């Protein structure tokens, strides 16, 4: 038996065992990973087209075409490599697809392939890329690798440990020459992976510290952390968290009504992902001077922009609609709060969090019967 035949048989067995475990065919496996990554990016741009190809010629595992229609083309044979990683097969696949998505979402307006292989066989492509300096190419590929790896993590995959071995396997399978030619070498790409891993670990710690600061009531620190995160990786979650921290800080300056003091659960705003959390209610005697009012209003208006940005990145992001309704209510615009909830699908309008803010809005519009009916249904 020849070595090539043995290699094919082993690859075939690994390939089919993996599919038996996941229950997905090739197209489904690639599509599921692609869709999870698109969701992780949480970008308002329409996702690029996904094209799955299968040819005998081994050119590149994946390629992004900016024109005429943004398209990411993935070689189905890439799964032969990725599925060798067993339980980490989807993590391996996510590295390649996330890299190409990073080119698209960061407006790299030319086509580029993960392996830098197609450039040799496509004159038009090659001529465009020759116009870029090595530093420009390194910057673009570093950005694509950094952000691709980050959003692979955001989608729930574990890319770092498999990256070096995956890169070796791709160079071997696609018979790539590891030469400079103005592009990152394999060694440089492995260094990029280590840099990305270190940076992402730092940002993840910043995220955890932001959550902890928010939970402790240190809203200035939480705001600072989420602003820093957004400067690197703007996402719907970061904008939402930023808006929540600003809103919670603003609530420190809001006078407490007699009704809210008597029944805090009814008037507790359903902010954040955890709708079971409750705002700590201060003393009934709190008053609001002009300076505090201006600070509260400024925080709420900035939070409004944060939630609107989160929604612009994903117009199905229900939590930010509810958070935005809370802000409208706190700004004294109860009708806008009701209108924002009414923009949600019927099922989401009936969620506990949405109903809670509706009850507060109705109460402040002196529509007490509606408010009391909701509170009764919610057992508040």
Automatic annotation (TrEMBL):
InterPro entries: TPR-like_helical_dom_sf. Residues 1-20 form the signal peptide. SUPFAM superfamilies: TPR-like. It comes from the Bacteria. Keywords: Signal. This is Peptidase M48 domain-containing protein.
């Amino acid at each position: 038996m020849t070595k090539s035949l043995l290699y094919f048989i082993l690859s075939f067995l690994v390939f089919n065992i993996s599919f038996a475990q996941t229950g997905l065919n090739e197209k489904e496996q690639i599509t599921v990973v692609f869709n999870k990554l698109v969701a992780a990016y949480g970008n308002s741009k329409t996702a690029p087209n996904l094209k799955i190809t299968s040819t005998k010629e081994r050119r590149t595992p994946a390629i992004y075409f900016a024109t005429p229609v943004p398209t990411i083309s993935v070689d189905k044979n890439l799964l032969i490599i990725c599925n060798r990683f067993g339980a980490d097969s989807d993590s391996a696949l996510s590295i390649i697809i996330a890299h190409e998505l990073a080119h698209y979402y960061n407006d790299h307006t030319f086509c580029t392939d993960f392996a830098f292989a197609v450039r040799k066989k496509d004159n038009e492509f090659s001529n465009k890329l020759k116009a870029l300096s090595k530093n420009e190419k390194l910057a673009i590929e570093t950005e694509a690798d950094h952000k691709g790896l980050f959003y692979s993590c955001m989608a729930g995959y574990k890319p770092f440990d498999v990256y070096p071995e995956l890169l070796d396997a791709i160079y071997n399978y696609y018979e790539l020459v590891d030469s400079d030619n103005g592009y990152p070498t394999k060694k440089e790409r492995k260094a990029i992976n280590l840099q990305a891993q270190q940076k992402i670990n730092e940002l993840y710690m910043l995220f955890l510290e932001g959550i902890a600061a928010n939970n402790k009531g240190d809203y200035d620190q939480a705001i600072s952390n989420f602003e820093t995160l957004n400067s690197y990786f703007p996402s719907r979650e970061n904008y939402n968290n930023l808006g929540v921290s600003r809103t919670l800080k603003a609530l420190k300056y809001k006078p407490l009504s007699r009704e809210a003091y008597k029944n805090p659960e009814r008037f507790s705003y359903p902010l954040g992902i955890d709708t079971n959390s409750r705002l700590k209610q201060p003393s009934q005697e709190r008053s609001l001077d002009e300076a505090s009012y201006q600070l509260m209003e400024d925080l709420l208006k900035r939070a409004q922009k944060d939630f609107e940005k989160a929604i612009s990145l994903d117009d199905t992001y229900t939590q930010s609609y509810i958070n935005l309704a809370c802000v409208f209510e706190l700004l004294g615009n109860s009708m806008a709060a009701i209108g924002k909830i009414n923009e949600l699908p019927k099922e989401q309008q009936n969620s506990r969090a949405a109903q809670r803010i509706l009850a507060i809005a109705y109460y402040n519009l002196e529509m007490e019967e509606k408010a009391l009916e909701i509170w009764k249904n919610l057992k508040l």
